[in-house]
Amino acid sequence: MSAATVTLYVPRDSAAIALGANEVAAAIAAEAQQRRVDIAIVRNGSRGMFWLEPLVEVETAQGRMAYGPVDLADVPGLFDAAFHQGGAHPLARGLTEEIPYLKHQERLTFARVGITDPLSLADYLAHEGYVGLQRAIAMSAEAIVQEVLDSGLRGRGGAAFPTGIKWKTVASAQAPQKYIVCNADEGDSGTFSDRMVMEDDPFVLIEGMTIAGLAVGATQGYIYVRSEYPHAIAALDQAVATAGQHGYLGDNILGSGKAFRLEVRMGAGAYICGEETALLESLEGKRGVVRAKPPLPALQGLFGKPTVINNVISLATVPIVLARGAAFYKNYGVGRSHGTLPFQLAGNVKQGGLVEKAFGLTLRQLLQDFGGGTASGRPIRAVQVGGPLGAYMPQQQLDTPLDYEAFAAIGAMVGHGGMVVFDDGVDMAQQARYAMAFCAIESCGKCTPCRIGSTRGVEVIDKIIANKDGKDSRPQQVHLLRDLCDTMLNGSLCAMGGLTPYPVLSALNHFPEDFGVPT
Amino acid sequence: MNRQQPFDVGAVKDVIAARRHMPGAMLPILHGIQDAVGFVPADAVPMIADALNVSRAEVHGVLSFYHHFRQQPAGKHVVQICRAEACQSVGSEALAKHAEQAIGCAFHETTADGQFTLEPVYCLGLCSCGPNVVVDGELHARVGAAKLDRLLQAKRGAP
Predict the structure, then answer these.
(1) What is the pLDDT of residues A373-431, one digit of tens each?
(2) Pick the CATH number of A121-330 from 3.40.50.10860, 1.10.10.10, 3.30.200.20, 3.40.50.11540
(3) Which among B30, B123, B140 is the nearest to A189, CB-wise?
(4) Chain A residues closer than 8 Å to B25 by CB
(5) Is this complex's ipTM strictly greater than 0.85?
(6) Which residues of chain A does B30 touch, with a Cβ-Cβ cutoff of 8 Å?
(7) Handedness of CA B16, B17, B19, B22 (dihedral sign)
């Protein structure tokens, strides 16, 4: 590489790949060679602006310049415009950091994502990587737990249980072996922040789990990744190996005398394994059947031993909490929702992607200011927040602030921060039916309200839909549906059966016209 | 078991031997077998049961619980279409209907000539750029009917 070598960035994130990033990278390399332009291509993570992917960035004296979305056919034209020197072109987006979508975010957990080469430990270290672990090693285990407790960090997988309390329970349990398990079974439609961390900044997750191990006295960790995420698994496997080679994992972490080993395990296409006890069963080699609680996994978790089981984002946020201190993190957010959440704009949205913001902005701000409305250009009719078990929110609820308590107060949930936008073409009775049908496909079968209730739910909604124009048994069927939802809500063992009524009832309550019943 | 498909018994034995001592070895073994021979043959079930000291029923229970594991070989090409909410919001149900027509079989089925297996998938984590499709393990985003036809045509022409 000479001094004149230009560094170009083409993301390796699987969403960018699905949009042609590999082909674009190859075409740029070939074109550069042909034109004798000296370039080096770094396969970085995605900036999370998926409507601009594949987003090619060029390193310039002013900073990185963005060009996107780049199609294969655009590559010769980009060279004609000397994009490798930051030249003007219709696809030019200016300095990446100045793109409003990115500029107006508060990226803490995602601080490095899109900037670094995800598989380069050197790049990770050059961007504040392992500062948190260095600090944790110098602290007592109790002090690490206290720091996480003081940060106000709550479980980002959806349940929002305080992470520090979970850790404290495991730390005070006495056992010869304890485990750290990362729940990377991100099965909710409309969510991809876990996937992005794993593919685009895997070391941050490894660092977070290592800190968790030091805090609670666990020496073995497992990352349970869904089989639908092969790119994430490959990135993690490589990062775990690299971390091991450099003393960041193993029997003597950074010479501290403390051990922490990590293994990546692949799920097998069962949505229910995102439920923590079903996940533990699956890791043990069994059917992913939900366990009754108590005992809590914190006391009797994996192989019956005390286990911290946290979501990817929770664990990936721990390094910055340790690096910058609890107060720094806690100062973001509102009420009891401290810190930031990487929100995910998905579905029928013009500018879909990842938006990390402090809690407190409204759903409408997120959808309009960042999302830019629907992709179809038609009005937004409903937004499902928090995955397949989250409520459908109508226009009149879009001014709700994104904060755990505000959402709970209106019978909705922030969950994992994923939001799926639907335009006015959506049939909400069909969406309600789908919620029940999905529950029927994915129920583990252990408890009756979920296993049978979901099937009965599909049947009842089918009757409501079929009777739309016929003679009217709908009020009776709707009564039955509400009764069924009540049973599922109160009688199910876990959130699968217990929350499936959320999308169903919210659809029925906010969009009764789609069910042929009076508003 | 009737109509048992032939498979490489040695490869299955190798996987079991290499992974039987892992904690919670069942899923890693099933993955290994499927990766090696394309599916998990019924004859592998007693071999796994024997190695892990569990009953055949337990192995079968795990094998049949998870959507990812195949008990029969798939077609030459596997097409998976995301049918979850985010893709629904941008027309994946219409794409799913088109796929059944274009491929010539229903979901969870393989075409009579063994060329294609069509499957649903519930979320690939590409929810900002749906409808999303996987063809032989390769991800494709923003797939409409025309793009799906091109992807299928490329596979039909493939050796």
Answers:
(1) 999 999 999 999 999 999 999 999 999 999 999 999 999 999 999 999 999 999 999 99
(2) 3.40.50.11540
(3) B123
(4) 285
(5) yes
(6) 268
(7) positive
